[in-house]
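Objective 1b: paired records.
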Amino acid sequence: MIARRIESVEPGLYHYAPLTRALERLRLLEIPDAVLTQLFLDQSYVANTAAIFVISAFLHRSMHKYLDRGYRYVLLEAGHVAQNLNLASTALELGSFNLGGFFDGFLAQLFALDLEQEVPLYAVALGQPASANRIASRLAEGVL
């Protein structure tokens, strides 16, 4: 996770450890808005997020067990995780949006991922919605 503007969480990079159900700090880091925007393919609204959850996978684990179908399962699970983040953010009255567009290599480098072992698949940004009328705000930015 890229923590940016979260109460009681310092800006930086974090990893969720499922066995202990804990958030582990990888390193403190404040990523400038312009750098973050570029990382996510010039999607300007990324700069206003409180956090970006990056979903990654060790492909060889699933492919070892399920062979070629393991790749499909990994992608399906990434979608399930993203949807659950969307549902949780809605329950907390936060905004969320899914990000499939990013520079894989730079994102992997940021989190010190070995792309031969672990790959970023998907991301979900969370924060306060900029506007109640998302369509109008996207039209104003030229996104739609």
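Objective 1b, second protein:
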Amino acid sequence: MKPKTDFQKLRQRITEQERRTLESWPSVSLGAPALDHKLPGGGLAAGTLHEFLPATPGDLAALAGFSLGVLAQLLRVQTGFVLLALPGFHAFREGAFYPVGLTALGCDPDRLVQLRAPKGENVLWAMEEGLENPALAAVVGVLPNNDRAYDFTASRRLAMRAAASGVTALLIRSQRTPGNATAAQTRWRIAAAPSEEQPWAGGRMPGLGAPQWQVQLTKSKNGALGEWRVRWDDETFSFRLAAVLADRAASRAPAQPAVAVSRTPRGWAAAS
């Protein structure tokens, strides 16, 4: 029998590692069955690497919000802290994470450890080190725009360490397109979507409702792809499919005729 070559041994080792990754760590429900059913195991796989990309340059804030919603689902079923690795200039350009806003998305700020790094390669190094720490439940990294430190080798290192420890890696990328093949289990493309209209004066009007996203699953190992309009449910702290209206304008209340008000002090008092 011909002995196996080094390449064949390496391929067998990678295949066995991927099989153990899917079998060893649980899957986490995102709350929306339509999303969970597309993912192997009925939910987002823990102990592996997931990527999140913006649909346009202006969707980076929406992307961060969706990623934190995913993180909230992980924290509901896993104990431990979260390492958040950010570029040093991220707060200046994109804004800092607000503790009250994190709480609204179901993320306990007391469980987050924030680290600032000067370059993308430092963010990746911090993620690798964090993935070996048993006190962590997840590691979240934000890469700078047009960063070249992240490639297949870097993604493979993250995926292998996550598989060995069970710590989940969430990577937020600024590029709209991945540009290269990676070892991520899933890849999500996120765009901001308008909030649902809010009840007002017997009708409905546009307003600041629950956050909504246009979510596209563009890569899923051993799973299916799809696209959904998703909203955040403040009561369950999870994702739900958004109600799609065929004609949003038809749901608005008809315009009320303006009431003439005298601009005298007596007229203002009567109007108020």
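Residues 6-24 form the longest helix (19 residues). The radius of gyration is 23 Å.
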